[in-house]
Amino acid sequence: MINSANAKSIDVDEFGLRLRSILLKKDESAILISNLIDSDQASDIHNINCDGYGRIWHKSILPEENWGEIVLPYYPAAWKLGISREEASTIQVFQSAGCNYRCWFCFVDYRLLVADIKKAKYFTCDSLVSSLKKEAFIPKVIRLSGGQPDLTPEWTPWMMKALINANLHETTYLWLDDNLSNDYAWRVLRDEDWDLMRSYKNFGRVGCLKGFDPSSFHFNTKAPPEHFYRQLEILKRLLETRLDLYLYLVLTSNNISALAEKMERLLDSLQEIHLNLPLRVSPLKIKPYSPTVYRMKSSEEFAMENNQYCALTAWREALRKRFSPQELRLPCYEVKIH
Ligand code: SF4
Distance of alpha carbon 128 from its chain centroid, rounded? Predict the structure, then answer.
């Protein structure tokens, strides 16, 4: 997992391929899904369902303290489904059992990110949807999360087909998390998969920028710093697919020097992809979770308690120089990026 060229970085590609070889049973159209019972994460969860392989996330729609509203995914979900934001904030989550980054703030136990078949089970998407249909309550928003769901990009079109088969595609919204680490989607998906994703009305995907520069990206993920630029390249390719795309931005760092310049550079990079792309970004407030409190180092805690607020201020100031108050008030789903 550790890259010999940079002893402190994960070999994201070797690790990702190794995880994919376990996470996916292509001949059975099955994906390895984490069991959340007995995990450290379980104490942060209100409602584990689907026999332990799913959970319901009650996303707050109130502004976060000293931060503001984190509007994803319930803003676009409510808009697409024509339901209230409150209703769209109750979200069904399934977690892929592997990830090729190691973010210190990850709300998932690291042991649920290594494709451990003893802590997970293979599901076809039809069986995953069947287990959801047995529940007394089915949330309107279904989030494919992880882990890194796009280590197995097949999951998304398979899930869409299963939701269509179950006649749930019109009444639910499908949301895909992506850590923007790999290009497997372009390598393994067929044209018909991309066509399905483009034509599936109630679908949105979010890429998570894990830092605002190479240094903060490495600090947050343990991936090589230059992979920060890979995140931007993948983002550019995703935008060209014309899918409905949103972004989280993680603002923790152990280095908050020259923040104004760093945010200008980040905005330059995003606007090179599309002039309006920064208006689709929702800064993600990093908070403590049960799995993170034990493993967090003092520099990481300081980044969470102090530095991310400085970076947020710099991000907002940089945005105000480039966009009018009216543009900044636009709901993210109304921002044109195609
Ligand atoms: S990319 Fe996501 S799932 Fe992976 S370690 Fe980071 S926060 Fe956790």
Answer: 20
Q: What is the pLDDT of residues 11-27, one digit of tens each?
A: 999 999 999 999 999 99
Nearest atom, ligand 1, residue 179 CA: 1
Residue ranges of domains in the chain: 12-334
Distance in angstroms (rounded) separating the CA atoms of residues 276 and 246: 11
Distance 41 CA to ligand 1 centre (A): 13
Q: Tens digit of pLDDT for each residue in 209-221? A: 999 999 999 999 9
CATH number of 12-334: 3.20.20.70
Question: Mind listing the pLDDT tens digit for each residue in 75-105?
Answer: 999 999 999 999 999 999 999 999 999 999 9
Give the end-to-end CA distance of the chain in Å, rounded to a whole number: 37
The C-alpha atoms of residue 180 and residue 238 are separated, in whole angstroms, by: 9
pTM, two decimal places: 0.96
Report how far ligand 1's centroid is from the alpha carbon of 181 (Å).
10
Measure the CA–CA gap between 176 and 116, rounded to whole angstroms: 22
Among 277, 291, 288, smallest CA distance to 327 is for: 277
